[in-house]
Inverse folding.
């Protein structure tokens, strides 16, 4: 009888456990170490990035999380508990988390569902509940959970195991599922995590498809087609972290950032926050563009049309507003002449309509930060190569 009760207890934990609700009502915003620094992480670097997030104005713009990616791990002790690399993090992770919290920010960490991480550090396989307890003790607020060295593990079950472990540990932690979209997480992860990767790794290239599987900005953008129905408050499609400030042109960085906002994507910067150009800082802290990403409806935008390298995207926003983005995928400038009244925008997935014949909208250019007219007149503009023109439409009542 006692054995049956024990079995029932663990089964009930498995069946009724759920993710912590309400932690990501809008897409998470923060910074992650991987894109710029790879394995070259240390407590000094992470403290420096936290300081820079505050000093640069990124915190004021809405960024919250400072996330250490792979390579912070040291060893497991005789009881199986994880410890940080003592040379890179001599003060320990708890002290680092406390420092980040003292800045009014939140702290994130990385692990892997396999036996080892992607960089051959100790993974969480077989230690999920121990690791979750450790993260809770340290004061972790965000967990990125990767998918290397997993053998024949079932992805859904592996991520459910860690979700249950986090729930059992009792500390609310945003759970970022990172299995690169291989197992279609959008179909099953809504109740498991708060965001899930939809693609392989991003690279700082606007139009690239590398043999190692890494993808450029446009290639990732194209893979988001058909996924918007799965995304929304507390459960987000994640097209990977931002490459703004990592070597692309200013035009390309602006287009990249704009399109991630149109996708209602998590905005996780991946550059050196302590050494940003004015252009990079301006892109990452543009509150008007960020407001499109952080809109409370949480609706992912959609491609309305595409012709000769020019794409037009629409995204429904609260208060019957709309975001519009004209994306130039080509290496030459493109002239726009958009006759609003000839178009009726219908979002059949979320039951939203913009009828420009019956409603006139005020037009605001979100990068120029200026009102530029109304939809009762045709819109003419030039979109530079690998760039965007991004607008907000507000109905005039």
């Amino acid at each position: 009888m006692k054995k049956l009760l024990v079995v029932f207890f663990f089964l009930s934990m498995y069946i009724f456990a759920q993710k912590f609700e309400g932690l990501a009502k809008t897409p998470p915003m923060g910074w992650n170490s991987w894109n710029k620094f790879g394995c070259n992480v240390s407590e000094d670097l992470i403290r420096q990035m936290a300081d820079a997030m505050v000093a640069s104005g990124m915190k004021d713009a809405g960024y919250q999380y400072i996330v250490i990616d792979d390579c912070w791990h040291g060893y497991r002790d005789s009881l199986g508990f994880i410890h940080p690399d003592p040379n890179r993090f001599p003060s320990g992770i708890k002290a680092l988390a406390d420092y980040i919290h003292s800045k009014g920010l939140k702290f994130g960490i990385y692990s892997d569902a396999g036996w080892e991480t992607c960089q051959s550090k100790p993974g969480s396989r077989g230690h999920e509940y121990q690791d979750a307890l450790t993260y809770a003790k340290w004061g972790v607020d965000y967990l990125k959970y990767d998918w290397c060295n997993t053998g024949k593990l079932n992805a859904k079950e592996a991520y459910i195991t860690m979700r249950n472990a986090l729930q059992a540990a009792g500390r609310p932690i945003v759970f970022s599922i990172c299995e690169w979209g291989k197992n279609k997480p959008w179909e099953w992860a809504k109740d498991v995590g708060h965001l899930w990767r939809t693609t392989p790794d991003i690279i700082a290239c606007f139009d690239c498809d590398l043999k190692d599987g890494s993808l450029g900005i446009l290639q990732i953008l194209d893979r988001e087609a058909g996924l918007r129905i799965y995304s929304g408050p507390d459960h987000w499609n994640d097209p990977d972290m931002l490459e703004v400030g990592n070597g692309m042109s200013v035009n390309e960085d602006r287009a990249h950032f704009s399109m991630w906002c149109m996708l209602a994507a998590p905005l996780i910067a991946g550059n050196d926050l302590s050494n940003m150009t004015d252009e990079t800082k301006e892109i990452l802290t543009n509150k008007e563009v960020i407001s499109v990403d952080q809109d409370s409806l949480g609706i992912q935008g959609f491609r309305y049309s595409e012709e000769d390298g020019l794409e037009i995207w629409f995204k429904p926003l609260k208060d019957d507003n709309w975001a519009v983005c004209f994306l130039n995928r080509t290496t030459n400038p493109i002239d726009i002449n958009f006759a609003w009244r000839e178009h009726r925008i219908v979002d059949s997935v979320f039951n939203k309509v913009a009828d420009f014949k019956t409603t006139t909208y005020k037009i605001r250019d979100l990068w120029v930060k200026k009102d530029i007219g109304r939809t009762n007149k045709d819109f003419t503009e030039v979109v530079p190569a690998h760039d965007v023109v991004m607008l907000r439409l507000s109905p005039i009542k």
Observations:
- The chain has two domains: 2-293, 302-395.
